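Worked problem 6 (solution included).
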Amino acid sequence: MSSPYGSWSSPFSAASVAASSPRIDGARFVGSEIWWGESVPSEKGRVTVRSSSGAEILPAPWSARSRVHEYGGGAWTSDAVGGLYFVDAGDQRVWRLTPGAEPVPLTPPGPSHGGLRLQGGRLLAVREDLSTEPHTRAIVEIPVDGSAAEDASAIRVVSEGDGFFAHPALSPDGERVAWVAWDRGRMPWESARVRVAELARGEARTIASHAALQPEWRTDAELLFADDPTGRWALHRVTIDGNGAAADPEPFAAVDADTGYGLWVLGNRWYQLLDDGRVVAVRTNGRDAVVVIDPDGAARPLDVPADGHVSVDDVDGTRVLLSGNGSVVAPGLWCVDVDSGEVVAVRGGEPVEPDWMPRALPIEVEGPHGTVHAFAYPPANPGAEAPDDELPPYVVLVHGGPTAHVTGASSAAIAFYTSRGIGVLDVNYGGSTGYGRDYRERLDGQWGVVDVDDVIAAARGLADAGLADASRIAIRGGSAGGWTVLSALVRGGAFAAGMSRYGVADLRMLAAETHDFEASYLDGLVGPLPSYEHVYIERSPLTHADRIAVPVLLLQGGEDRVVPPTQSEAIRDALVARGIDHEYVLYPTEGHGFRSAENIIDALERELTFLGRVFGFEPRL
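Solution. The predicted structure is:
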């Protein structure tokens, strides 16, 4: 017997989605064990560190989370004998935890830390001090003996300024440190440079200056890094002589794919060096591939389950730790032997049921600005059948960033919809990473135009192909994706409902309230103030809220410092004034993104109920 789309019974409850698929935050080989960081939704998103032995290394209430650049990353590392070094979410100090002991602080109260890197027994970090004006950041070396906890002068400052820093790396002989730096007024994917300091002489030089990422020392005199001078992030190598002078960087095994993407967090690793000189690297062109590159540049693919947002977290001999998601597996962490090909799932990574989660279909549609890339997830439920004369409703997903991308990964959160008979279209609109610099820069000066045109083109392409009910297509996004949701609703005509999670509604308000890291992001996406103020006003959904004529669901974190609640509340007030069907939900303890299980569950159930009410089906929660 057939049942309407949207009303199918599903095993994917909101609670099961909240509990599914660990959110991995870095991984390390530690002696005979493997350690990894993992968010625990049932403990309000606390990040713990766990071991392959079954032990929890970082017990509650400790939580390893950095707030550097607001998005953090690199909040823990380890030594070979079981010592854990971590940034506590509460005080942002660096702490050391040794087996059988209580954590001890390594840094004094005050600044935040992230991007931890332990090499040769020396601990490097990115430090951020928001108590100064202007705010300052630095690459620092932190004594591991605890002497700096009471005496801040014991911390060695390698480089400091009012710009931004990432990816510190110590040379094998301990005499040089490389890192990534970029200036206030720029984003790292626009312009970032690799710097190298000669520690004994206190000198530093710039080695590369396009949009550089992740320097790693191959020898004391040879450095690898990723950069995109020709339009794709590719590996480059450079030699540095005894006086610190560098030769011109040379591309290494470059192809038409990206090794790297937007530097939002400090812990990402797109490649790692093996002891024998080979390199294990990620290459992204929509989806990810992992390759092993010989010293001469020849590359061969590595057959691994992960093909989305893959991070090469650590290496040990011929073994490598890969975390990420996959199109036919759940998100997880894998240990892979690059020579034997053996793949062991350490955490998560289970194969998905293809009847419930078929592989996403990569699609391309032509929009006003060129080809638009997306991934389609049609309704899928082996125990359900829809009426012959009905087309399915769809939700168009808009990723945040906007300088980010989606990979067509399997996802319980997507199956939550598709298993009930609601299709999902995940769009990589112009401005997304994963397709090269030209595609990424399509959004320059055009935020609120190109992204909106592209999601509308993708939705109409789906309907024109007879795959979706054109009268029942909703749009959902968070943060920058929420901006596109609201902007598309203002445009009108394509979407019958909108769901915005902590979305941007007013550009001038965002410019005034957002945090340091993104303070100049709008200069590139729209234009600098005050000369572009008229564009800020014209583009902002709040300016044209009177044009929104369809139901809207607004979900917001009360502690969000990236997109504060004032944004969602301004749209709410405008909808109230015009009597537009809407719901507004504030989660008081959430920040930018929902981490608590109870709030993840509530948000999903509210979205499903909202869609059922608007599209005329009775959902089964």
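Discussion: The longest strand covers residues 308-316.
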